[in-house]
Every structure is written in structure tokens, then in C-alpha cells.
């Protein structure tokens, strides 16, 4: 089961640290940490549900309560597009405005700095 973990400090949180946090609830298959969120894949649904219940609101860092919930799939008929070589000064709203000239934008994230999958 794929779990969404929000309010993560991607610059200060490692996949190994998240795996250790989720491991008491079941087998962790993989973890991917982005800028402010992460995905944790767990083998067993029951363990994943226990982890969601136990870790939602947990403070991994002081003052940063995690948002832990089942990952939801993208809406039908949507596509995820990677745009590289974006200026460090570009905001997600600027990028969204550029793409909204061509159609509806469901989600727009600008990942800056060092990120890891």
C-alpha cells in the first residue's frame, strides 16, 4: 500500500529515517522523499493502516506534525509532466500560470535544492 506523508522536511529527512519510523507497523518496501512530502510503500495493508493511524500527527521534527494518509491516485485523464532546467527563482504559481494558458492544472510543484527519490 502506498502512503502519503506530508509536512516532511526533505532537506533534513532521509528515506532510511522514514523506513525506520514505519517499520514497527510492517514491512517497508520503499521510501521516496521529496521537498515537503514523501511516499512510503508498505507490503501489508493492515500494517499500513496501523501506521497511518499511529503516525498521523507525529512530530518527526519539533513543530512539524506529519500528515500521514493513504495515497490517492491521480484523477483520470491527467498526466504528470516533468519540466527541467527551471530557474531557482521560479515559483510554483508562476509555473502554474504558464501551463494554465494551455489547460487546467490539477497540481504544480517546483522542487528546489537537493532532492532524492
UniProtKB/TrEMBL annotation:
Acetylation is among the record's keywords: no
Major site of localization recorded for this protein: cytoplasm
Name assigned to this protein: RNA-binding protein 14
Keywords: Cytoplasm, Nucleus, Phosphoprotein, Repeat, RNA-binding
InterPro entries, sorted: Euk_RNA-bind_prot, Nucleotide-bd_a/b_plait_sf, RBD_domain_sf, RRM_dom
Organism, as annotated: Leptonychotes weddellii (Weddell seal)
PANTHER family per UniProt: OS02G0815200 PROTEIN, RNA-BINDING PROTEIN 14
Domain (RRM) ranges: 1-73
Gene that encodes the chain: RBM14
Amino acid at each position: 500500500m502506498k502512503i502519503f506523508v506530508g509536512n516532511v522536511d526533505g532537506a533534513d529527512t532521509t528515506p532510511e529515517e522514514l523506513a525506520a519510523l514505519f517499520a514497527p507497523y510492517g514491512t517497508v518496501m520503499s521510501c521516496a522523499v521529496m521537498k515537503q512530502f514523501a511516499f512510503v510503500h508498505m507490503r501489508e495493508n493492515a500494517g499500513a493502516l496501523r501506521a497511518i493511524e499511529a503516525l498521523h500527527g507525529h512530530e518527526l521534527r519539533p513543530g512539524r506534525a506529519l500528515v500521514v494518509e493513504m495515497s490517492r491516485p491521480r484523477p483520470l485523464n491527467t498526466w504528470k509532466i516533468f519540466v527541467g532546467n527551471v530557474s531557482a527563482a521560479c515559483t510554483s504559481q508562476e509555473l502554474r500560470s504558464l501551463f494554465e494558458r494551455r489547460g487546467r492544472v490539477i497540481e504544480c510543484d517546483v522542487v528546489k535544492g537537493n532532492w532524492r527519490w
